Amino acid sequence: MLSAFRQGFSETGFVEGRNVAIEFRWAEGRYERLPELVHDLVRRKVAVIVTSGGEASAQAAKAATSTIPIVFNIGGDPVEAGLVASFSRPGGNLTGVSSVTTTLMPKQFGLLSELAPKAVLIGVLVSPENLGAMAESHIAEIMSAGRAVGRQALILKASTDVDIDVAFEALIQGRVQALLVTAGPLFVTRMDRLVAFAARHALPAMYFRRELVDAGGLVSYGSSTAEGYRQMGIYAGRILKGEKPSELPVVQPTRFELVINLRTAKLLGLDIPQSVLARADEVIE
């Protein structure tokens, strides 16, 4: 995704190593490291901070500085999260991209139910940090979506590698028949583990980013990650040129992608309904 960010940056005239320097800090899914990493950037007096770790990293940056411009990428509503005053006029020193992945969870649950019609119990892996203050409300929406289609949702929260191990064990013990992996930076950095687990236990799994389907996952539904990063690069460049984050509207996706991996479906012995295939934006064969 860094290439997409750099592309957006270059569209505003900035090229790393030529007329701008980029300092990278990686939390690698360890949310407790975020305050330390952000404070380090503040001490270095960077011109703009770009966060890509969901609401947790945006909140950490907001807590660290009220003067350095911040460009975020989160899955939820930045107004509900208290990051901006409004989508159109953010105010303050933050703006960025909302991929609205948290609001897509009921839709993802419904699509997974169509793909796995015999799955009565569906496991749902969630990242509390990514869902933020509205976590319980979003979880309630998933439960409601399950009841609407006659399915039961087993909610499992994970913030660490140990939590993922515990969730895996619960999924096995609970004999779940399908898996929904919702948005979260931890799940991106651990995508190979998640995809391998689903394959090992023959679980039809829905993901929030197409990268997990490219890695062998069954299906994803969400906005384009690359486009979100490109928009972040554009905003970072515009701010460096003098525009104020308070006056740059929060970017929202205009389209969503349904990506299906037919090779994985074949390995699972799963026949994808024609009604779902017809809606797919891309099919990996």
Features:
alpha/beta, Rossmann fold, 7-stranded mixed sheet, 15% strand
Q: Brief description of this entry?
A:
The protein is an alpha/beta fold and 285 residues long.
* Major sheet attributes: 7 strands, mixed
Q: Which class best fits the helix and strand makeup?
A: alpha/beta
Question: Looking at CATH, which topology of the largest domain would you report?
Answer: Rossmann fold
Q: What's the CATH class label of the largest domain?
A: Alpha Beta
User: How do the strands of the widest beta sheet line up side by side?
Assistant: 5-4-6-7-8-9-10
The CATH level-2 architecture of the largest domain is identified as 3-Layer(aba) Sandwich
CATH superfamily of the largest domain: Response regulator
Low-confidence segments, given as residue ranges, are none
In whole angstroms, how far apart are the ends? 23 Å
Q: What gyration radius follows from the Cα positions, in whole Å?
A: 19 Å
Q: Please provide the ordered H/E string of secondary-structure elements.
A: HHEHEEHEHHEHEHHEHEHEHHE
Helix content: 40-55%
Tertiary shape:
globular
Strand content: 15-25%
Task: Name the average pLDDT.
Answer: 92
Count of DSSP H/I helices:
13
